[in-house]
Design brief:
By secondary structure, this protein is α/β, with parallel strands linked by helices. Helices cover about 55% and strands about 10% of the residues.
Length: about 270
């Protein structure tokens, strides 16, 4: 078994948000599996309608001395592979990258603030679509054990209907790794009804006013045959919120013991 691991593509993705419009165009070109035989600066600049100077700036931003070094590494790494013996170490290394990046982007103060909101609000709704929807269900199951009134909604139409009924005693948490517009639209409506809104995302929110925002460590730079789940960084944030909620309210610890006790009794039956 072999999996292809292009380190250069990982580097491009890890700094994608810092690129200019022209650099994003170049990035998209190299992120695709290339069938082009001629990747010289002249050929690529003509194909993409960018200057050769833009290619040089792009390469330097990616950490290379110039386009020539970038192209050499890209060509070599594009055909590098790992075998089954190396797979375990490679996957665990990517997990370690997520945790390491978590130290850089996770804000302890914001995590504590959101945990306080979760404990204080009467009702909590978590919105998410696609893979983010899977994370919302996990969040619901985790915090139900603490006795919190929490509901996960993963259908766009149900979100619209539910948002109409939100009020000042409600907390709306939206999980949107890719910046899903449906989530942002519901934030606007929820805010107009007095609800408190929190966004969990891998991208800095620029379009919607929210009361708090939790950035998760992005795994866009991890490319290993889609082995790593995109919701893994979100689960990390959920675990942290869970721990902070328990720290915030001793009563939740008592509720957790009760729910675990009931679950244990049911299993015995």
């Amino acid at each position: 078994m072999q999996l292809y691991e292009n380190v250069v593509k990982q580097q491009i993705l890890s700094i994608y948000d810092s690129f200019t419009a022209a650099e994003c165009q170049i990035a998209e070109f190299f992120l695709k599996d290339q069938e082009e035989n001629d990747l010289s600066a002249k050929a690529v600049s003509q194909k993409l309608y960018v200057s050769m100077a833009s290619l040089t700036r792009f390469a330097k931003k990616c950490g290379y001395a110039g386009y020539r070094e970038f192209l050499y590494e890209y060509s070599v790494r594009n055909h590098a592979s790992i075998n089954a013996d190396q797979l375990l170490r490679s996957v665990l290394n990517h997990y370690q990258q997520i945790v390491s990046k978590g130290y850089q982007v996770l804000d302890e103060e914001k995590l504590q603030e959101v945990a306080k909101l979760m404990v204080a609000k009467r009702r909590i709704f978590v919105y998410g679509i696609g893979s983010s929807g899977v994370a919302t269900q996990e969040m619901k199951y985790r915090f139900m054990r603490l006795g919190l009134d929490i509901e996960a909604i993963t259908d766009a139409e149900l979100m619209k209907m539910n948002t109409v009924n939100l009020h000042e005693d409600c907390l709306l948490i939206g999980i949107s790794l890719s910046g899903n517009q449906v989530i942002h639209d519901n934030f606007d409506k929820a805010k107009s009804r007095g609800a408190t809104c929190v966004l969990i995302s891998a991208k800095t929110n620029l379009a919607t006013e929210v009361d708090n925002e939790l950035l998760v460590p992005s795994i866009g730079n991890i490319e290993i045959g889609n082995v790593i789940s995109p919701i893994l960084p979100v689960l990390l944030v959920i675990d942290l919120l869970y721990a902070y909620c328990l720290l915030e309210s001793p009563k939740l610890n008592d509720m957790l013991l009760q729910t675990l006790s009931e679950s244990y009794k049911k299993n015995l039956d």
